[in-house]
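Subject: sequence -> structure tokens, single chain

Hey, anyone have a minute? Need the predicted structure for the following. Not urgent.
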Amino acid sequence: MQDALVIAGRSFGSRLIVGTGKYKDVEETERAIDASGAEIVTVALRRVDLKDRSSGSLMTLLTKRKWTLLPNTAGCFTADEAVRTLRLARELGIFGDSHLVKLEVIGDPKTLYPDNEQTLEAAKVLVKEGFVVLPYCIDDPIICRKLEDVGCAAVMPLAAPIGSGLGIRNPHNLSIILEHAKVPVIVDAGVGTASDAAIAMELGCDGVLMNTAIAHARNPVLMADAMREAVTAGRKARLAGRMPRARYANASSPTEGLIE
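Reply:
Had a minute. Here:
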């Protein structure tokens, strides 16, 4: 089934985006990413030594493989911090030719909810500077519309707080976002298990981004494989179109024409 995820004109065969944090070591990170089938891999710029290219380092792994890197601004609490972080990363040349960035501006250190105002401010600057911006935001149709209007290549509303594993808390909001969005909608944060990923895709989301759900599983590599299959199955179910919901039973075998 040829059904690519297209972001700013670039096509990706996998609709699953994975992170690189919280694994026990770099070897497990690589095995989990491979099992996930992800083509886009996100890395927190402020939580990894970008200059460490020693044997066995995360940056060595990321640069030797052909994944598309999605640098993110996790740990930034203002628009200015996020913009400066991404400018520095660009100067260090870690983007390749994609210029894809995950914009994350946190508003509260306990809940890790994003600051919508600061996110929008940073997005305006970054888009003008040629970055392909994928912003992490609240599952709010209004902020998603505003981020799209300023030129973001996708919107990434949360399903639940980062690392909570609570799954999709507000499918109604996601449905409204999906109804009006003209750019890809990628669920970011809160997925806990494969069924959460499948539900996101069945709702019509274009992709799912996750880290903790895989890295903190008892068997991260096996969970990565499960997430790959869940995203694919959810997408196929969405395209297939589910049967209508009915209030009463509807026999699988019709009663008309029964042999007496």
